[in-house]
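Batch job 17 of 40 flagged for manual review because the log was empty.
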Amino acid sequence: MLPTRAAHTQCTHGQAVDRTGETRHPQDAVPAMSTARSDRVYEWWLQETTKFDYFVLGAALALVGYITSTLKPESIETGPALLQGGSLVAILASAIGGFKRIEASLSTLQANHRKLHALEGAGNLLRATEGPGPYLNNETGDFVTRDQAIQRAKELKTLAKQIDEVGAKWADRAKRRYTFRNRALLFGLGGLAAAWLWRATGF
């Protein structure tokens, strides 16, 4: 997912206040200043991580379809079929975990975008107050005093802190669902392999 640009508020009187936002992954700290190279590496990493999540989810769903088409209900009490049924449950749980993992990742990206949007807006408002006021909001046509601009910057910083707490919770959920998804999938694949060997050897 590419970094996005948000709407901006602009004030005149020699100062322009641009409020922009960029999507960032929850696990990464936001540097004070980024470079084009670090942005490219981050963008590549984010795209590959997203592709991997969708790939694992697609593989789990394909395995669920394969097992359900080959498993015979009347033979579920036999050893290999019972093991195969357990594998179906594990892989289905992995697929559900994959859906929830993607949901948590998207929610975290949204929270980080809103957080950066608020922080950058606060910083630009404070920079604008270095010049003489009042300041004209080009979008609303209202004049903003220096005290109003500082107060709005404080509100945006408070909002950013609240959003950061929400994003941290979603980030933790994404990590836990990542682990659950992978472990459940490996357990299911192990069960399928064991069922195949059981049938092949005739034990």
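Reviewer: the log was empty due to a logging misconfiguration, but the result itself is present. The two ends are 50 Å apart (CA to CA). Unflagging and moving on to job 18.
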